[in-house]
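Quick one:
INPUT:
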């Protein structure tokens, strides 16, 4: 591809100079050809002031890594879609798309400028909380668009962590506002503090805090702890799904009710897609440090990612198997624990994937599986509803990943990446300085997220814009927001029976996992003759018909869902052969 005119002229002159300096015979000696290539490559290095082939390769790989991280949005969407009930699938997937869209706008307008504006100004050694007037806003004066793309994908990933936690009960407008807020203000300030050389926690600062700074290689804290803390605050304000921990009268259930996802296949697909994207997440981060050893750390990050994810998945699966056998006497392999355990290991290794050795990655994965099981059971004990266990995965294992850096940071790797190894991990004889900085970083991240997002969620809830209407939750957000199943006649209360058999046929695809209609709405079975001509039949005809087999069109039963004090909302379902039946859906105050 040709560049600007000036570049093309310089390239042509360079080629002619190299060609004229090399004496070739008519046959074209291979040594002369190699010398010509070497001359041209060295010339390009002098023209650009830096190693052009390396810069080109770095940009290509960084954009590719950004694409892998962005592909994780599809993984989140599949995981969330498989973890909810069928009546909420479309709504959940759309919210994942809104994360990507909202983050693109927010990061373009303010996000990048707040996070990384002025980071390449080596003459300014100030430590700042936020950058204004240093460029980067509206993508202006961005020196490296490959880095911009990579960081945008990170901000979108941080925002979409919350999607699964709030599934099945959050309003659309509130979710879009939240997504823009995270990518515009919350994530950029944290990224500035840790990854911008001017940030007060940055290990790359000219004078790092406590002579070491906070080390978060690829984002256990900046991305995952940020998203996990936001999810925790959101579910505290939003409350659990209807029927999860309390019955229709508001009484606490002795045993929380499970709402199993409708598709384990989608959950497993999402897990594999996320794992695949994590290689761009962690290995791509190695290129942002611009070390002469970056090629080494790209591979190291990939290996450590693999080891931690695999170890954590096996740990969670078999520890849960042991606990089931111990406390229930019936042991079975639960794929949910294997999937979320693996994701927990990937979250935990993100903070130290480039600064710890492979044996330490195995230990981090082992700990991540145990942390996930503990946190998942803790949430149920505290009656906090998380539809996809995002809080145990991202918040608790984001914490563990940062603490693991303070324990296992290898001094040789620290020297090669950050230029010093004055305070390595504890297991290598280091003092508590690095571990203390990791704890300080944890407190800052959780404190900043709480300071911004808690008032925002409280305000949304006060305005009535946060949680969906009870009726919308009962019929499903697909119906409420997207003209979904009930309005299209795919769900409802009409049942046709053959009275001579014990089997019933349903003209719609019912959801086996959708039990909340039975808990939150009273069901009254009211027979109704759909064919009005049956009413004009004489008693002899009726006697004859009663002795004959009945078909769906002959006898239909209407299910009317009502509340004793309210006639409810009626939906009419029809087909080509039958005028249909009505279904009345009414919420019950809980």
């Amino acid at each position: 591809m040709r560049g600007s005119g000036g570049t093309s002229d310089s390239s042509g002159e360079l080629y002619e100079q190299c060609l004229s300096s090399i004496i070739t015979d008519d046959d074209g000696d291979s040594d002369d050809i190699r010398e010509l290539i070497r001359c041209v490559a060295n010339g390009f290095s002098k023209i650009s002031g830096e190693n052009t082939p390396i810069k080109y390769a770095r940009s290509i790989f960084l954009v590719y890594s950004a694409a892998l991280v962005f592909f994780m949005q599809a993984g989140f969407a599949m995981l969330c879609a498989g973890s909810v009930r069928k009546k909420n699938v479309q709504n959940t997937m759309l919210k994942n798309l809104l994360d990507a869209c909202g983050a693109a706008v927010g990061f373009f307008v303010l996000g990048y400028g707040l996070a990384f504006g002025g980071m390449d100004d080596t003459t300014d050694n100030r430590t700042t909380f936020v950058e204004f007037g240093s460029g980067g806003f509206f993508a202006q004066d961005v020196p490296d668009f490959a880095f911009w793309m990579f960081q945008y994908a990170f901000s979108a990933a941080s925002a979409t962590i919350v999607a699964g936690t709030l599934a099945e009960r959050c309003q659309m407008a509130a979710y879009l506002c939240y997504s823009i807020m995270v990518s515009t203000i919350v994530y950029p300030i944290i990224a500035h503090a840790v990854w911008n050389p001017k940030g007060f926690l940055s290990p790359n600062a000219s004078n790092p805090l406590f002579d070491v700074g906070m080390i978060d290689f690829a984002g256990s804290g900046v991305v995952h702890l940020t998203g996990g803390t936001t999810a925790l605050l959101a579910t505290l304000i939003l409350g659990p799904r209807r029927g999860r921990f309390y019955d229709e009268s508001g009484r606490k259930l002795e045993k929380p009710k499970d709402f199993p996802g409708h598709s384990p296949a989608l959950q497993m697909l999402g897990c594999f897609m996320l794992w695949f994207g994590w290689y761009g997440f962690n290995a791509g981060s190695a290129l942002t440090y611009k070390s002469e050893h970056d090629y080494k750390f790209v591979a190291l990050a990939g290996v450590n990612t693999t080891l931690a994810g695999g170890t954590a998945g096996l740990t969670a699966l078999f520890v849960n198997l042991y606990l089931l056998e111990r406390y229930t006497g019936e042991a079975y392999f639960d794929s949910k624990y294997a999937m979320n355990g693996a994701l927990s290991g990937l979250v935990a290794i993100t903070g130290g994937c480039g600064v710890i050795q492979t044996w330490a990655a195995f230990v981090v994965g082992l700990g991540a599986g145990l942390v996930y099981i503990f946190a998942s059971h803790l949430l149920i004990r505290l009656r906090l509803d998380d539809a996809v266990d995002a809080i145990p995965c991202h918040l608790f294992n984001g914490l563990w990943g940062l603490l693991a850096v303070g324990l296992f940071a290898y001094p040789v790797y620290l020297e090669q990446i950050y230029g010093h190894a004055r305070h390595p991990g504890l297991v290598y004889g280091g003092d508590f300085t690095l571990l203390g900085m990791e704890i300080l970083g944890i407190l800052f991240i959780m404190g900043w997220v709480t300071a911004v997002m808690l008032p925002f969620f409280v305000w949304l809830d006060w305005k009535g814009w946060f949680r969906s209407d009870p009726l919308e939750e009962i019929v499903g957000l697909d119906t409420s927001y997207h003209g979904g199943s009930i309005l299209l006649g795919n769900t409802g209360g009409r049942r046709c029976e053959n009275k001579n058999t014990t089997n019933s046929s349903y003209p719609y695809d019912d959801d086996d996992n959708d039990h909340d209609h039975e808990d939150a709405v009273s069901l009254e079975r009211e027979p109704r003759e759909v064919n009005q001509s049956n009413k004009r039949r004489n008693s002899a005809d009726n006697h004859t018909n009663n002795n004959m087999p009945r078909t769906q069109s002959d006898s239909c039963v209407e299910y009317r869902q009502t509340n004793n004090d309210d006639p409810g909302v009626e939906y009419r379902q029809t087909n080509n052969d039958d005028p249909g039946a009505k279904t009345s859906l009414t919420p019950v105050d809980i």
